[in-house]
Amino acid sequence: MNQRSTRARARPLAFAALAVLTALHLVAALTFLFLLTTVPPDLDLQTGPRSSAPAPQPAGSLPAPGPADPQGAPAPPGSAQSLRATELEIPALDIHQYLLELGVDPTGVLQPPVRPDVAGWFSGAAAPGEPGPTVIAGHVDSTSGPGVFYDLKDLVRGDRVVLRRSDGQTATYRVTSVLTVDKDQFPTQQVYGPTPGPELRLITCGGTFDRATGHYLRNVVVSGVLADGP
Amino acid sequence: MKATPPGSFVGRVLVHRALTVLLAVAGLLLAGPAVAGATQGDSYLRLAHLSPDTPNVDVYVASVSDPARSFVVPGVGYGAVSPYQPLPSGSYVISMRGAGAAPDSPAVISTSVDARPGGAYTVAGVGMSAELGLAVLSDKLETPAAGKASVRVINGAASAPAVDVGPANGPTWAGPVKFGTDTPYVDVPLGTWNLKVTSPDGGPELTTPCQLDANSTYTVLLVDRGGALKAELLTDSAGSAVVPSGGVNAGYGGMADRVDIDPAALAGVLIMVVAAGLVLAVWQRRARNSARGR
C-alpha cells in the first residue's frame, strides 16, 4: 500500500522529467539547425570564397573613409552642392560610421558601397539638414555575415539618427516609419520625391534572397524627419 | 482509502497554479511585442499671416488626438510665413487670437486641418480683416514632370488686386490672381528666371530673379512690404536632384538562410512543452486516484 502510493506519485514525476527531456531535445535540435543554416551559403569549403565575392572585412572597427564611388554622380546644382554627409550615428543600433559617397550606375540604379560593412550617402539627393530627402544606403549582409545595416529593420518610430556634414555641423533625425517594400514596386516618389523639410531615408535589403539573381527581393526603408538641425 | 490524501490535493492545486502561470507567460512570449515599427508617417504644417490690416496674432495649434502636442506661435505679423513644422498626422484646430490675448478668450478665427500622413499644409489668414478667412492649402509634394518645377501663386498684397505672374518676355504662368486667393500648381521649366509680376488693371509691377531646381515645388508669394509690392519665392518642397530608378541591391545573401529564432518565442515554445508534460502528469494522477477511489 505504502509502496504503491509512492509509485503512483512517482509516475507524474516521471512524466515531468520526460517533458523536460523533450524540451532539452528540442533546444538541441534547434541549436543544431541554427548552426547548420549559418554556414555561409556561398562559401565553398574546398576552394574558399568565390572570386566574385568581396574580401572579408575586419568587423567592429570604424572603417576609414574611402574614396568616392567611381560611378558617383556629380553634385547636383543648388546651394547645398558643397556640403556632404561624412558620418552616420545610430545609437539604438550601436552604429557609428564614416560614410562613403554614392551615385547611380549608367542605368540609373543607385549603387550601394561595394563593401558590406560601410554605408554611403547618395550625393544626388539632399545634404543632411537641407530640405529634401537625404539618402543613406548600406548592405544588410556580406556573403558570410551581417552587413552594416543588418539590424536596420529593428529601428522603431522615435529612434534618433545623427548625420555629420563636411562643415562639421550635425543633423539629428527622428524615425517616423520603417517599411519593407518589394523592389519591383519600389516607392520612388515616397523615397526620393519632394519633401517640405529635411528628411532621412536609410535603405538596405530585406525579404527573400533570390539565389538565381544574387539579390534580395525587398528593400527595408527607414524614414525620418529633422528633429534638430544645423 | 476513499479520501484523497491532503498532500496530494495541495500538490494538485500547486500544479494547476504553476500551469496557469506557465501558460500565461508562454502566451505573452509567443504574442511578441506590439506592432514594432509603425508605418505611419508625419505631416507638415506651415503658418502664414497674409491679411494686411489685421494686427499681430498669436496662432494656436491644438492637436485633437494628443493635446500634449499642441503649441502656440506668438506675435505673428502680416507677411510672416513660418518654416514647416513636422507633426504627427491627425486632426488639428488652428486658431488666431490678437497678440497677447488670453488663451481662453474667444478666437478671432479658427479652422480645422485634417493632416494626412505624408501631407503638407499651409494655413494662412487671408483677406482684409473685415472679411478675414483662414485658408487651408494642401501643398504639393508630388514630383513635377521631368525637367519642370511646380509653381503656384498666393496673392497676399492688397496693393495688387489682380496680377499675372510669369517670366519676363515669356508666357504667363498664372493669372489673373486676385488678392486673397491662390492658384493651383503649374509645371514650368527649370532654371533661373526673371520673374515678372504685372497688374493688368494698372497696379504695381515688378521683376525679380528666381531659381527653380529639379523635383521641387514652389510658392510665389505676393506681399506688401514697406508700402511696395514684393514677390517672394518660397520652397514648398525639395526632392532628390537625381532620382535613381527602382530599389537598391544592398545584400550579398550571407544571412539569408539564417533561421531568425526569436529567443522569446523559443522560451514560449519550451514553456508550452513543459506545461503539456505537467498536464499529462496531472491527468495520469487523476486517473489513478479515481481508479483507486472506485
Number of helices of chain A: 2
Order of helices and strands of chain B: HEEEEEEEEEEEEEEEEH
Q: Write out the strand line-up for the largest beta sheet of chain A, numbering strands in chain order.
A: 3-4-5-6-9-10-8-7
The parts of chain B where pLDDT drops under 50 for at least 5 residues are 1-6, 32-39
Count of distinct strands of chain B: 16
| Proportion of beta-strand residues of chain A | 25-35%
Straight-line N-to-C gap of chain B:
10 Å
- Sum up the overall morphology of chain A in one term: globular
Q: Biggest sheet of chain B, open or closed, and with what strands and sense?
A: 4 strands, mixed
What pattern of helices and strands is seen along the backbone of chain A?
HEEEEEEEEHEE
Secondary-structure content class of chain B: alpha+beta
SS summary, helix count of chain B: 2
Major sheet: arrangement of strands of chain B: 4-1-7-8
Rg of chain B = 33 Å
- The Cα radius of gyration of chain A reads 24 Å
Task: Provide structural commentary.
The complex is a heterodimer of chains A (230) and B (294). Chain A is an alpha+beta fold and 230 residues long. Chain A is built from 2 helices and 10 strands; from the N terminus they run αββββββββαββ. Chain A has helices at 2-37, 188-192; strands spanning 43-44, 48-49, 85-90, 95-102, 119-122, 132-138, 160-165, 170-182, 198-210, 215-228. An 8-stranded mixed β-barrel of chain A has the order 3-4-5-6-9-10-8-7. Chain A has a two-stranded antiparallel sheet with strand order 1-2. The termini of chain A are far apart. Mean pLDDT of chain A is 78; it is low at 1-6 and 31-80. Chain B is of the alpha+beta class and 294 residues long. Chain B has 2 helices and 16 strands. In chain B, α1 (6-31) packs antiparallel against α2. The longest helix of chain B has 31 residues, at 263-293. The N and C termini of chain B lie close together (10 Å). Mean pLDDT of chain B is 87; it is low at 1-6 and 32-39. The chains are: A alpha+beta (230), B alpha+beta (294).
